[in-house]
Amino acid sequence: MIIILGAGCAGLCAARRLQTRGHKVLLIEAEDHVGGLAGGIRIQGNIYEYGPHVFHTTDPQILADVKELMGADLIPYHRTIQIKFLGNYFQFPLSISDVIFKLPLSTVLRAALSFVLRAVEVWICRPKIETAETVLQRYYGDVLYKIFFKDYIQRVWGIAPAEFSPSFARERIPRFNILEVAEKAWALLSRHLGSGHAVRTEGYVEKVAGDLYTTRQGFSLITQKMADRITAGGGKILLQTKAVLIRREGQRVTGVRAVQEGKENMLDCEAVINTLPINEIALAFTPGLGVEVEEQARKLRFRAIVFIGIKVRRTRILRASFMYFREHSFNRITDLSYFGFKIEPQGSTLLVAEIACDPADRLWTDEAMVKEAVVADLLREDILTRDEIEEMHVFRAQHAHPMYTLGYERALSVLLEEFGKFHNFETAGRQGRFQYINTHVAMKMGYEAADRLADKI
Question: Which of 92, 235, 237, 392 shows its CA 20 to 30 Å from the CA of 80?
């Protein structure tokens, strides 16, 4: 039997692939539902999700698998994103047209100059120490960096951009291409000044690989159907069960100690695929993996998120499917009516606001405080009225986002190198490989981890 730690996208896909290769699987999941961060919580008949997840991929195998699994339940989705700042609504990620027409002319000119200067500077010299700050300054110039990114990153992540690895900016934030900027800026200005007609902005937003899909129960229906297929094939899924220890003999894993309803059991296994936080799993081995591994594991950090779910007596609330706010208690809010959700009763919608924090913060534990803070900000934005609110619920994700702090690459490589020595252990997924990835990438990681493991056991 192969044990899979975590029943999120990576774990579920790993289990499905192992079953096709003839292996028996057991998934261990701490929550009372499958899906991980791509799952959802059912509260009083409605599903609240951990943020705005949709399915998209250009990988033909994953696309075919999901379409076969979901059938008619998979429905097309069109994504719209906005950020509210300086009294204006901007497309997110930044659109060239928005920068030109919604910022003051003096700011646009200063931004253009700083952007060109930074673009030229890269050909002359690079900073001695590269950080997310230096990358963003090069991508956007000093002016736009300070306006849109510097304070926002500090507030959402709890540390300054200068403390982040350059990987954070390169992997998560699209850049402006100087030739594209010049071409589109000239086209926009010419059309705007010459015709007086509204400026079209199609093609100026973030490019997402593949068509977008959702379901009437969000992404969580995809993960639930994966789980159903696994159990129908003879696999087992233990919910509300926490893996607390991994037993090893040399470079071979022999068992996992799990706790369910206060009872501990040692589960013997042929092999293990991990999708739990890599820093925590590295400390769970017995015998331990050594001082160096343990020291590096403690250097890796995750950012937590508190989610505030709100049922509102209106069919649609937001101007876009999800929106970012720079100056409120929450940094992002999603309107699930855009995602095709079946919401009860009819005439209502579900909002999910996100507050980034650390588990040591009061925000993590004080539900009354976060509820009131979110409502106050929604009222301030005139998004809803207090009497439209029907229900409010708080749920949490402790390991929502890996934090790419300076030097994290060294810590991560030590852990991955150590895990690579094992004959029957693999690690995968956002948390398991400490990578800020989307769901379709986590799914592919699960397939690949299963194949690597099956090839060597």
Answer: 392
